[in-house]
Design goal:
Blueprint (H helix, E strand, L loop, with lengths): L20 E5 H5 L2 H8 L19 E5 H8 L13 H33 L14 H6 L40 H7 L1 H10 L8 H18 L3 H12 L8 E2 L5 E2 L16 H14 L8 H8 L2 H10 L18 H9 L14
Antiparallel strand pairs: 1-2, 3-4
Helix pairs in contact: 8-10, 9-13, 11-12, 12-13
Length: 353
């Protein structure tokens, strides 16, 4: 039988070890004929008598590593194509995709921030003032300048007394602490209350200053005692402009520092203006007709009755300000205690915190 053209083991299949044999079909060996010749510099076999042709005489020829290496030395492995592994591709392309997402998020954030800041913040300053003279005699309103921050009895006591019943059972304005002491005693509350109540980042020093400035500004115009405004802010939001809104059964939304009736929410793009608007809403009433402290003082005279009206929308027929009246039972007692120095002491109000 005439010998077939030579065939060579190229390394594509499992390597042979020592003299152990492996069998490969002519078809499999055909795939690497040219490769083997080029690797060894061997020309195509000229005829049946070429020494390499002894390995192509049968359809399945037994080849050993020793047979092949004796011809021209060990065959080199089939060269690998240059390129990246699948894992490397995943890492590279995955990192690129993540970087692209981060860049897009940053760009979108910047655009939103710029757009938010570029939009005008429109609100009209109110001239609403307390006119009920009883409110001046009982202390909810004053003709004194808010620049007098040392008014009151000093720092008071960080203690809680449970007040209940009619307005006359609550402490008189002559027992209230000064605005300066009340502010300083609660300064740490202003600095930490947002995060503590899961309302987002804490107030910056500038935001805290803006809150004080807004209280002083609206007190001067409205004639509401700045201590009363501060006490209500602490009661409603603990001084956090980002405080979440509540919604009444009738759909009234109460946002921000003073949880005012369909009032203004905090706007980070116009921080100082939105803080002033929130204090105005709670002090002088909202554009939607929600009553502020001015309207409640005009209606009830007493600051404690005004506090009940602000929280509940009305005074219960019994006149008992410790009744919830559809809102918070401890509200008026808490406000009274804030006005006399309470900050951290445990509440003694039933159901209070």
């Amino acid at each position: 039988m005439a010998a077939k053209p030579g065939r060579y083991y190229s390394g594509q299949y499992s390597p042979l070890v020592g003299n152990s044999a492996a069998f490969y079909s002519n078809n499999e060996l055909d795939q690497y004929d040219d490769h083997a010749r080029k690797a060894y510099g061997v020309p195509a076999p000229p005829g049946d008598d070429h020494p390499l042709n002894q390995y192509g005489s049968q359809d399945r020829q037994q080849l050993t590593y020793d047979n092949l290496t004796s011809l021209k030395g060990p065959l080199p492995q089939r060269p690998h194509k240059a390129g990246w592994s699948r894992r490397r591709k995943c890492v590279v392309f995955g990192s690129a995709a993540l970087l692209l997402v981060i860049i897009i998020a940053i760009v979108v954030g910047v655009v939103v921030s710029v757009t938010h800041r570029s939009q005008p913040f429109n609100f009209t300053l109110s001239n609403a003032q307390v006119t009920n003279q009883t409110a001046f005699s009982l202390g909810g309103a004053t003709h004194n300048s808010p620049n007098d921050t040392t008014d009151g009895v000093g720092v008071g006591a960080d203690a809680y007394t449970y007040y209940q019943g009619v307005a006359s059972n609550f402490p008189p304005a002559s027992a209230w602490v000064s605005f300066e002491d009340m502010w300083n005693s609660n300064l740490q509350v202003f600095k930490t209350s947002c995060k503590a109540n899961n309302h987002g980042p804490n107030n910056s020093d500038q935001m805290i200053q803006d809150i004080m400035d807004a209280i002083q500004n609206r007190s001067s115009v409205s004639l509401v005692d700045h201590r009363f405004i501060l006490a209500v802010i602490l009661q409603e939001s603990q001084g956090c402009p980002r405080a979440g809104s509540t919604t009444s059964a009738s759909g009234v939304v109460n946002p921000g520092l003073m949880q005012s009736h369909n009032g203004t929410s905090y706007n980070s793009g116009h921080s100082a203006d939105s803080i002033l608007a929130m204090v105005q809403d709670g002090t002088q009433g909202t554009a939607s007709g929600g009553d502020g402290l001015v309207q409640n003082l005009d209606m009830y005279g007493s600051p404690y009755s005004a506090a009940r009206g602000y929280n509940s929308g009305y005074i219960p027929k019994s006149g008992d300000l410790s009744e919830a009246a559809g809102a918070t039972a401890c509200y008026v007692s808490d406000v009274a205690n804030r006005l006399t120095g309470w900050v951290y002491a445990a509440s003694k109000c039933p159901g209070g915190t």
